[in-house]
Amino acid sequence: MRNRWGILAVLFVVRATMAFQFQSVAAVAPLLGGQFGVSIADIGVLIGLYFAPGIVFALPGGAIGQKFGDKRTVLGALLLMLAGSVVMAYATLWNVQIAGRLLAGIGGVILSVQLTKMVTDWFAGKEIATAMAILVNSWPAGIAVSLLVLPSIGTSTGLGAVHLAVAAFIVFGVALLALFYRPPSDAPAASTAAVARLDRSAAFAVIVAGLIWGLFNIGFAVIFSFGPSMLVERGWSIASAGSAISIVLWIAVFSVPFGGWLADRTGRPQTILVVASLVSALLMVLLPRTGAVIATVIALGLIGGQPAGPIMSLPARVLLPASRAIGMGLFFTMFYGCMMLGPVVGGALAKWTGSAAAAFDFGAAMILVCPVLLLGFNWIASGAAARRAIAPT
C-alpha cells in the first residue's frame, strides 16, 4: 500500500490494540477485585504498570527502530503485547498478572513511540497535524471499544476470556501490519539515519511538554480507569457503567481532531489548551457528585479531547528534524513516567477515602497544572528560539 491515508488507517488500528489492551484491566476491575481478593489501590497499580516500561524503553525506542527497521520493530512490539495478554489470561496468581502486564507494557511503549515516528515519515511537510490527531484518536477509540465489549465478556465467560479477546485483536493488528504496511519511498534505511543531539534548552522544553501531555492524560485516564468503579459504587451494573463511561471516548474520537482543526483555524492553539483544560477539570470534579451522569460524560467527551492536538504540537516548536527521534523519545519518557504513577496515586486516594470520587479530584488537579506548565514551556522555547536565531551559521 502506497496511499498515505491508507497507511494511516493501518497504523490507527495497530495503535488501537494498545489502547484496547491498556483498558482491559479497568474495564473489569470489580471482577479482578473479586477473583484475586485485591483492593482498588492494587488495581490502580496494575493499571499504571502498563506504562512503567516507558521510563526505560521510550528514550531508546527510536534507536531500536532505527537499528532493526520500523516494521520489524512494531511487529516485535505486538508479539510482546500478545505474550503479555496470554500470560494474564492463564494466571492464577496476582504476581503473575503483574508480570504479564509488564511484558505487555514493554511492547506497548515501543509500539507507541515507533508508530508516531512512522506517521511523521509519511506526513512530514503534508497534513502532519491532521495525521497526528487521527493517530491520537486511536487511543480513545480502542478504549471505548474495550469498555463496550470486555465487561460483557468478563461477566459471561470469565477474566481469562477477556485477555484472550485482547490477544485476538493484537493478532489482527499483526496481520494487518504485515500485509499492508510499506515505508515511504524517501524513508531512510535502517541504521543510516543521522540523529542530532538536543541542546539543553530544547531538552528542557521537551521535558516540560512531555509533563503537560502526561499530566493531562492522567486526568483523562482517571475517567475511564476509575469511572466504571465509581458508577458501580453508586449502584450501576458493571456492563452499564462501562457503557456509560465509554461515551467519553466515543465523543473524543470527534473532539480530538476538532480541537486540532480549531487550533489551526484560529491560530490560537494554546488558548484552546488552557480553556479546555479548565473546563475539563471542573467537569471531572462534578461527575462523581451529580445525578446528571450522562450529560456530564457527554460534556467531558466534547471538551476533554480538544487539547490533545495543541499539546502534541508543542515539541515541533523546539525540535529540529535530525533531533526528532531522541526528542520524541524524551517526550514519551516523561509521558510514561506520569502515566505509570498517576493511576497508582489515584487508586491509593480512592482506597484512603473509601470512594473512587477522590481519584477524579486528583485527575482534575493534574489537569489544572497543565496551563501553569505551559507558561514555563513558552519561556524556555522562546529563549531557545532566540539563541538559535543569533547562533553563527
**Total beta-strand segments:** 0
**Which structural class fits the helix and strand makeup?**
mainly alpha
**Which percent band covers the strand fraction?**
under 5%
The second-level CATH architecture is: Up-down Bundle
**Helix-strand pattern:** HHHHHHHHHHHHHHHH
CATH superfamily: MFS general substrate transporter like domains
Give the SSE layout:
Blueprint: H1 4-26, H2 29-36, H3 40-49, H4 54-57, H5 61-68, H6 70-90, H7 94-123, H8 128-157, H9 159-180, H10 200-233, H11 238-266, H12 269-286, H13 293-304, H14 308-312, H15 324-353, H16 357-390
What does this structure look like?
The chain has about 400 residues and is mainly α. The protein has 16 helices and no strands. α10 (about 200-235) packs antiparallel against α16 (about 355-390). The longest helix is centred in the middle third of the chain and has 34 residues, at about 200-235. The radius of gyration is 20 Å and the shape is globular.
Q: What tags apply to this protein structure?
A:
single chain; 393 residues; mainly alpha; Growth Hormone, Chain: A; 0% strand
Provide a short characterization of the protein structure.
This protein has helices at residues 4-26, 29-36, 40-49, 54-57, 61-68, 70-90, 94-123, 128-157, 159-180, 200-233, 238-266, 269-286, 293-304, 308-312, 324-353, 357-390.
